[in-house]
Amino acid sequence: MKQWHKIVGIVVGAIAILFLIALCIIGTKMGFSVKQHRESEQSEIVARIDSYINKNGRLPASLSELGFEQTLGLYSYKGNSINLIRTDYSNNEYVLEWWDQTHNIWQYSSEEKKWYDYELWEFEPPINIDTIRGIYNAYYAPRKNMRIEIDSLKRNDDRISILDCDIELKADSSAYLRYYTADTLQMEGWVTFYPNTLPEFLKEFGTWKYYDGKGNCYRKFWNYKQNGKLIYETDR
User: Fold this and answer.
1) Residue-averaged pLDDT of the chain
2) 208 versus 162: which is more confidently predicted?
3) Dihedrals φ, ψ of 166, to 5°?
4) What is the pTM of this model?
5) Residue 116, class by beta-carbon neighbours within 10 Å (0-12 exposed, 13-18 middle, 19+ buried)?
6) Confidence tier at 80 by pLDDT (50, 70, 90)
């Protein structure tokens, strides 16, 4: 009986060891896959920037020129955040910042043609930090008592299109919206949308104003296209 218990113990131990080895192998492969995906995405972004420079002889004034979607503070590419810093206009040199969804940062130097997996250089954000905070507070305020006032609703005869998730979308209508919490104006600006899905599908364009309830107003320009021409404000 004791020998049988010993055999069972050896078998169970062997299975446990094999299971741990398998977990290690799977974990290594998953980590390698995540690294490959990240490096592939980073290479895609650099290639698009360098291709633009080769074609136009200059750095893009805005990442919207490359089709990247704006967010409240930065730009988005495949769910990750990016920011382009112009370091030398004469030689079209730049630093590219890339954050993953866990807020880890990588920086790329066009001069060195090298990625760093940490923040080697410190830059001010493209929008003043107080402005970003004010916009975030207004944008993500509780929606329980929020109401929307629709003004200047019209067909999209101005041929306005917006950039959403790296895709250019042409909505059939536009309107000026005002968001109120109770009777307090919270934010206002132009949107394009599809009426059948309002308010689920809305996309800002042009100048938007965000209010903090203390008398302060924060401004942000959402880039868009009109008749195929990009209408934008530079990031800095």
Assistant:
1) 79
2) 208
3) 70, 15
4) 0.74
5) middle
6) confident
